[in-house]
Amino acid sequence: MSTLWTPGGEVPVDDGRGRPTPPAPPGRPDQADDPLAGLSEQERAQAEELAQQLAEAREQIAGTPAEVVVGNHAMGLYELGAIHLSQQPPNLEEARLAIDALGALVDRLKGRLGEHEATLKDALHQIRMAFVQVSRTTEEPTREPADGGEAASGASAEE
Fold it and tell me: CA–CA separation, 8 vs 6, rounded Å?
């Protein structure tokens, strides 16, 4: 006898030899009907509780304005950048990626981030300044920037 795999489990198929297809074993629920089949009662209860918690979390997120969720994610990028800057030695490339991602969000979503937009802009400015300061202190003493060191902070001799 041959079987065919399906998302619901193995399904017996007629192999063309005229033999009848045996029925599924009794007492074994089809996995498509019961995704928790094979779990103990305790495991089943834990899985059901987790599923309920996930459903409640999804409902809570769905009821939260997107600007709030995006703002929270943006602050997570700020924190990620700060963590990489605070490492010894600082991980500048990882910090740069997080800071650039934060900048992309704040700059591209201008006017759409709600009441916390000003806070996000300030945070972006602060983390960029911290990046410049940390970058300057971690440069090798013998290495001179080609532009005299002014371009890294955006400052010029006229200021």
Answer: 5
Instruction: Name residues whose C-beta falls within 8 Å of residue 101's C-beta, 6 or more positions apart in sequence.
Output: 77
Which one-letter amino acid corresponds to residue 106? V
Tokens of 117: 């937009």
Whether 149 maps to a domain, the answer reads no
Give CA 145 to chain center in angstroms. Answer: 36
Domain residue limits at 107: 66-138
**Cα–Cα nearest to 49, from 30, 64, 57, 7:** 57
Question: d(Cα 26, Cα 40) in Å, to the nearest integer?
Answer: 18
SS3 for 9? strand
Model's pTM, two decimal places? 0.61
Render pLDDT for 116-132 as a digit per residue (tens, 0 to 9).
999 999 999 999 999 99
The domain total for the chain is 1
pLDDT < 70 positions in the chain: 1-2, 7-8, 14-32, 140-159
Q: Is 123 within 8 Å of 78 (Cβ atoms)?
A: yes
